[in-house]
Amino acid sequence: MSTPRVRVLVVGAGFGGLAAAAELQRTGVADVQVLERADEVGGVWRDNTYPGAACDVPSSLYSWSWAADRPWGRRYAPQPEILDYIRDTAAARGLRDLVRTKTAVTAARYDEPTRTWQVTTADGETIETDVVVSAVGQLSEPVVPDLPGRETFAGPAFHSAQWRHDVDLTGRRVVVVGTGASAIQFVPQVARQAAHVTVVQRSAPYVVPKPDHRHGRLYHRVVDRLPRLRRLERAAIFRLTEQLNAALGQDGPLTKVLRGVWRLHLRHQVKDPALRARLVPDYPLGCKRLLFSNDWYPTLDAPHVDVVTERIERIEPAGVRTADGVLHEADVLLWGTGFAATDFLSTLTVTGVGGRDLHEQWADGASAHLGVAVPGFPGFYCLYGPHTNLGGSSILGMLEPQARYVAQLVRRLAERPGTRLDVRPDVATAFEDEMRTRLDGSVWTGCASWYRGDDGHISTNWPGRTAEYAHRLETVRWSDYEEVPA
User: Fold this and answer.
1) Which are the contacts of 253, defined by CB distance < 8 A and separation ≥ 6?
2) CA 467: distance to chain centroid?
3) pLDDT digit string, tens, across residues 277-328
4) What are the DSSP calls for 66-123, one per residue?
5) pTM for the full model?
6) Cβ distance 350 to 465 under 8 Å?
7) What would the pLDDT profile of 227-266 be if each residue is shown by its tens digit?
8) Predicted confidence band at 2 (pLDDT cuts at 50, 70, 90)?
């Protein structure tokens, strides 16, 4: 049986993978296939269906620049609307036809004699390709802490990214572990149903008001008649989020304003002084992701909601036992414990030149030139790779420049049939050195967070503004690459 062959293989059909497919399509690369492990496109917006799931970036910016005319229902779109946007846009642009669903990629191996990538799927199929584009994301693998007794819990227990809609929370005692971006959205919804909610908090987040509202008929009538206003709105929000990115990276005037807004928000919404004291973060603002919510603090202040700050000692059949000896009884246990963001490409085995293993090469921290290319892996490119996450703003402002950059690399290969491009080791090392130097002086070093690995190294975040990143990826510097000849 012959091995199927495709020119470019994209892994993942979320915002990043579809952006790559769209850019390759736009530049005339016809032979592209997108492999998606799930049964539909959408990435994290397909997987995260928990109550209250929504974006914390305004929808006019959290959308592809080439499909920015969506008539959004709210300033901050909820999960179902974002998923509809991804599906509708993929179908309208012909991208859905490039996607093969229910096909999980498990390995990619560079074959030196043929200078091709041999990509293996979970069902044992091998596909040959010139270029692999990994678009599996940083927030796709849920993390549940390995606590003693975790498997002994007698009731339903599930992660927010694997929400069980068959479990009715009405009148139940619910324990929530975690206070991150997902938890602040689903806990208020859960508290409206449950008889009692216990939130186990390891560290308090900074939470500021979310300026959300529904777009009315007048808004839609005006922007439909004057589409330029939609572009101006997007541009204005972009400039504002760029300022937010800069503020969250250093302790400047805007940071002080945000800290003041947070303090007023907390004082206004939480009446109990003892509870307020437990909700004060013990790290600088921006060290962890700044969160936006209008109902998080009032929910925690409700009489049937408790906030526990003691360390979890173990999980028992009847609930969660904390270090002070108290058993917090639960009928349902919810994990709001985030994702393995620093374990890049953890679901894939990637083997490059000379049999080198990508994860072994990344043992001291993931690194890729411009977050895209890794030495010794010619023709293997990352989207949302190391050093491309943001403390604020829209991640699409990073994904689209990456997609355009990869398209330039693919076009270069078409001009030189049979050759492959491998980023020079000294170039990749210089970029990593730059990232470490800039990140060492950032606010993200001030606490433990999902931005950092176990060794404290920050391999996730970009230390500058999105405009700087887009500028650096605008045109490939061909001197950064070595051609592997035919």
Assistant:
1) none
2) 19
3) 999 999 999 888 899 999 999 999 999 999 999 999 999 999 999 999 999 9
4) GG-----SBSS-BHHHHHHHHHHHHHHTT-GGGEE-S--EEEEEEETTTTEEEEEETT
5) 0.94
6) no
7) 888 889 999 999 988 887 777 666 667 888 999 999 999 9
8) low
DSSP-derived pairing of the beta strands 99-100 and 291-292? unpaired
Ramachandran angles phi, psi of 153, nearest 5°: -60, 135
Residue written as token pair 């009489």: 303
Question: What is 370-406 written as a DSSP string?
Answer: TTTB-TT-TTEEESS-TT-B-SSS-THHHHHHHHHHH
DSSP classification of residue 2: P
CA separation (Å) from 441 to 19, 311, 392, 437?
32, 30, 18, 7
pLDDT at 178 over 80: yes
Contact 20, 135 (CB under 8 A): yes
Distance between CA atoms of 460 and 450, rounded to whole angstroms?
9
381-412 burial: b if 16+ Cβ within 10 Å, else e: bbbbbbbbbbbbbbbbbbbbbbbbbbbebbee
Which residue in this structure is represented by tokens 């503004």? 465
Residue type at position 257: V
| b/e map 135-172, b = 16+ CB within 10 Å | bbbbbbbbbbeeeeeeeebebbbbbbbebeeeeebeeb
pLDDT tens readout for residues 405-460: 999 999 999 888 878 899 999 999 999 999 999 998 788 888 888 788 777 788 99
**C-alpha to C-alpha distance for 203 and 196, rounded to whole angstroms:** 21
